[in-house]
Amino acid sequence: MIPAQFDYQAPATIEEAISLLAGDPDGAKVLAGGHSLIPAMKLRLAQPQLLVDIARIKSLSYIREEGDQILIGATTTHYQLESSDLLKNICPLLPACAANIGDVQVRNKGTIGGSLAHSDPAGDWPAAALALRAELVMQGPNGERTVPADSFFIELMTTDIQPGEILREIRIKKPSGRFGHAYQKVPHPASGYAVVGVAVHLGLNADGSCAAAGIGVTGVSTKAFRPQAVEAALVGSNLDDQTIAAAVAKVCDGVNLTTDVYASGDYRRHLAEVHTRRAIQKAKSV
Ligand SMILES: Cc1cc2nc3c(=O)[nH]c(=O)nc-3n(C[C@H](O)[C@H](O)[C@H](O)COP(=O)(O)OP(=O)(O)OC[C@H]3O[C@@H](n4cnc5c(N)ncnc54)[C@H](O)[C@@H]3O)c2cc1C
After folding, report:
1. Ligand 1 centroid from CA 44, angstroms
2. Which of 44, 45, 86, 201 is the most buried (most CB within 10 A)?
């Protein structure tokens, strides 16, 4: 399939990119890795008149520590996150999640910002962003604003990014003290997308009991979500098998489950329960 005709601009700065978006509010779209947008254009599901390529803005690609935070530029690729020694040391859930995305070509081109902005219901990054209570920094014609991951994902492929805004940075509080993590995924055999993906980050007390729990689930519904009832059931417990089993039974409570040609809603619920339990078991023994 061939996309409809479009113009292309590759600005050198984010300010220039924002001004290009402002110049064509209905027809312009941000292009990052292109691994979701270009297929959508080829299928004519998206027909932007102008692509504003932000992948060439060097200042948008970085992973660094600042105070008690980890800052990640929006065009940082999945592979850069997967292979980051800094992240392997201070926030290993991020490389673990990145390693599960698609194949090597997808990981080399696709970006964390593009994945979060696209909010594919089977994308992996939304689960990790929710589990780690990430904050998303948007920049637009009216300046900058920060949104917690909890209120960023609104509905199917819909986020809180406003017209003319660019997701510029992802901020994550550096995990401290004793903690464990795991990313569990059942990939679709053709695309690699998550049929179910579960990200778990546990804060642990010296005796192994649970001080804090962050869980993000993807693939199961129209958007990724945090099963707060599961988190609440774990915090304060000693993470014994009975507590974990009772907690994970609540993972899909109140969630509208997706049924498609590959998996029924009931099967997805089953997978979510099994893989949330496995992820918690792994995270508590790290
Ligand atoms: C074969 C294949 C397999 C895949 N498997 C997986 C998988 O297993 N797991 C997974 O999570 N993903 C998977 N993907 C998707 C991949 O991770 C994409 O890279 C990702 O979803 C989108 O990132 P991108 O940088 O390519 O964004 P693009 O495709 O360039 O953009 C996607 C959307 O986000 C918008 N956008 C991009 N960046 C920004 C920004 N900074 N601010 C505002 N808006 C922005 C664009 O306008 C567009 O609407 C797969 C893709 C392919 C082709």
Report:
1. 16
2. 201
